[in-house]
TrEMBL record:
Boundaries of every CheB-type methylesterase domain copy: 361-539
Substrates-to-products reaction catalysed: L-glutaminyl-[protein] + H2O = L-glutamyl-[protein] + NH4(+); [protein]-L-glutamate 5-O-methyl ester + H2O = L-glutamyl-[protein] + methanol + H(+)
Name by which UniProt lists this protein: Protein-glutamate methylesterase/protein-glutamine glutaminase
Biased composition (Low complexity): 220-273, 293-347
Known role: Involved in chemotaxis. Part of a chemotaxis signal transduction system that modulates chemotaxis in response to various stimuli. Catalyzes the demethylation of specific methylglutamate residues introduced into the chemoreceptors (methyl-accepting chemotaxis proteins or MCP) by CheR. Also mediates the irreversible deamidation of specific glutamine residues to glutamic acid.
Notes on the domains: Contains a C-terminal catalytic domain, and an N-terminal region which modulates catalytic activity.
Keywords carried by this UniProt record: Chemotaxis, Cytoplasm, Hydrolase, Phosphoprotein
GO biological process annotation, one example: chemotaxis
Domain Response regulatory, chain residue ranges per copy: 11-129
Length: 546
């Protein structure tokens, strides 16, 4: 018998022009008690109508549809709710793979390759497992990020409320208008400064999901209003209209679906942007202020509805089930997942760092990996060592991923080929459905591909890559294990450490799924567990580079 989930079901919208595909996918999801299919529609225009009603956490979005295709609908969906997680679904063609990656630069968080026929779809157990895993992982990640912002908002609100009595006694009655305004203005500046520091602390290292990886990517109008306070680059100006008021990122509130209408109409735009008001009403501060970054899931703080008159309890009103849903994420692998994210490092012991002669850099990743890879690799410009990557991904998609890595990071990335010689400073990506290994020593090293049985249910797999690197480079290897389900990379990482190399893992807060990096961290083989934004600098500390 199926266990009853300890959290409310994840709310999912399916958008596909094939009635057969919609029916089969809906049935797959309906069989899982942790998922509630809120809607199933056949084009982007209908999807927008469902989104306007609110409550959607994940959208599975087809690419090719009549009336409005997936790429056209994507920014419009994110405009309605910047925190919704959009997973692109497409058949395995080079064109669709390329569009899926374009969509990820425009705000989609992931992709899933659909079987090419309804018959394949019906019997495709692998497709079902991958679909359910990704939907749950991204929905849970969204809830956790909203929870982080809720906690931050409550803290800021409490500080603001504590500071209020000190600033008030000076001029209670005389000159009600002018002096009050002046005092309020002064407090506003102080509050801005405090908020900047607070947000810098929260955003500094963990900005990952939905982040733009090139300068020109996606400033969406709904966001621009609220984007500035959280980023700390500019001081917010009290007169912005804030069209998408806090409810837009709240999945289960009635206001969430009307970012441009309900929010703007029900409350003057100023309150969520006016620091003076935020000080007077800590609850509004908790709801409105942190909801800034659409793209980093970490920033959309959305506790608005719960806050009306008093600072909300720390854990109260984020989408109901934030905490309990950690376990399901690791269901497809045996990775140990800690019970609570904030205390992720509690049970982890780190190995001492050591100076090693780094000759090779190895990276393993899975769910959420493309975004994390872009982030890490962009910081590795100038390294002289070859970089080997295994990302769990099907054929065709790895070809496009290699092109996007080259385009977005400045590093030359190639999909590995048999007998390809290894050159320093270049990136080699394992092709879909093949394990990538290294053979030879010194100047005679080259890549080899094989279709040996999957390891950790994956091909390509990280473990065989790491074992071969140890055989070729000894302990002169620096390995990074990034976000992903399961525990691939943990055993290979142990071999790296036993040979004298080092392993760094991505931390839980910046991971979509803390399966692979969590397994490495809990195995006691890591010298560091870091936010994704700190991993490149850590690698360069030992590997050198500009």
């Amino acid at each position: 018998m199926e266990e009853t989930p300890t959290h409310s079901p994840y709310k999912v919208l399916i958008v596909d022009d094939s009635a057969i595909v919609r029916g089969l996918v809906t049935r797959m999801m309906a069989e899982d008690a942790e998922i509630d299919v809120v809607g199933s529609v056949n084009n982007g225009e209908e999807a927008l109508a469902v989104m306007e009603r609110g409550g959607i956490e994940v959208v599975v979005l087809d690419i090719e549809m009549p009336v409005m295709d997936g790429l056209t609908a994507l920014p419009k969906l994110l405009e309605i709710d910047p925190t919704v997680r959009v997973i692109m679904a497409s058949t395995l063609t080079k064109r669709n793979a390329d569009i899926s990656f374009q969509a990820m630069t425009l705000g989609a968080v992931d992709y899933i390759p659909k079987p090419s026929s309804s018959k394949d779809l019906n019997v495709g157990e692998g497709f079902r497992e991958e679909l359910l895993d990704k939907v749950k992982a991204w929905a849970e990640q969204r809830r956790k990020m909203l929870e982080v912002d809720e906690a931050a908002a409550s803290e800021v609100a409490q500080r603001a409320e504590e500071a209020e009595p000190e600033a008030k006694p000076a001029s209670p009655e005389p000159d009600g208008g002018a002096s009050d305004d002046a005092a309020s203005e002064g407090k506003a500046h102080a509050f801005r400064a405090e908020m900047s520091v607070e947000h810098q602390q929260l955003q500094k290292q963990g900005r990952i999901q939905r982040k733009r990886f090139t300068a020109e990517l996606r400033p969406r109008p709904m966001q621009q209003q609220r984007h500035q306070p959280a980023q700390m680059r500019q001081t917010p100006q009290p007169q912005q209209p804030a069209p998408s008021a806090a409810p837009a990122s709240q999945p289960d509130t009635s206001a969430a679906k009307t970012p441009a209408t309900g929010a703007a109409a029900g409350r003057p735009a100023a309150p969520s942007r006016d620091p003076g008001r935020l000080i007077r009403d800590a609850a509004i501060a908790a709801g409105g202020q942190p909801k800034s970054a659409p793209k980093t899931a970490a920033r959309p703080a959305t506790k608005a509805p719960a806050a009306r008159t008093a600072p909300p309890p720390k854990r109260q009103a984020a989408p109901a089930p934030q905490k309990a849903a950690r376990a399901p994420q690791a269901r497809s692998g045996s990775a140990p997942a800690p019970a609570k994210r904030p205390s992720a490092r509690g049970g982890i012991s780190l190995l001492p760092e050591k100076r090693i002669n780094v000759e090779a850099i190895a990276i393993g990743s899975s769910t959420g990996g493309p975004q994390a890879l872009f982030e890490v690799l962009r910081g590795l410009n100038g390294v002289r060592q070859p970089i080997f990557i295994t990302q769990h991904m099907p054929a065709t998609f790895t070809t496009i991923l290699a092109e996007h890595i080259t385009r977005l990071t400045g590093l030359k990335c190639q999909e590995a080929q048999n007998k390809m010689p290894i050159v320093g400073g270049q990136v080699y990506l394992a092709p879909g459905d093949y394990h990538m290994t290294v053979e030879g020593r010194g100047g005679g090293r080259h890549l080899m591909l094989n279709q040996n049985p999957p390891e950790n249910f994956c091909r390509p797999s990280v473990d065989p890559m790491l074992r071969s690197l140890v055989a070729s480079y000894g302990g002169n290897i620096l390995t990074a294990i990034l976000t992903g389900m399961g525990q691939d990379g943990m055993l290979g990482g142990r071999d790296v450490v036993n040979a004298g190399g080092m392993v760094v893992a991505q931390d839980e807060q910046s991971s979509v799924v803390w399966g692979m990096p969590g397994a490495a961290a809990h195995a006691g083989i890591c010298s560091a567990v870091l936010p994704v934004g700190g991993i490149a600098a850590y690698i360069k500390k030992f590997a050198g580079g500009r």
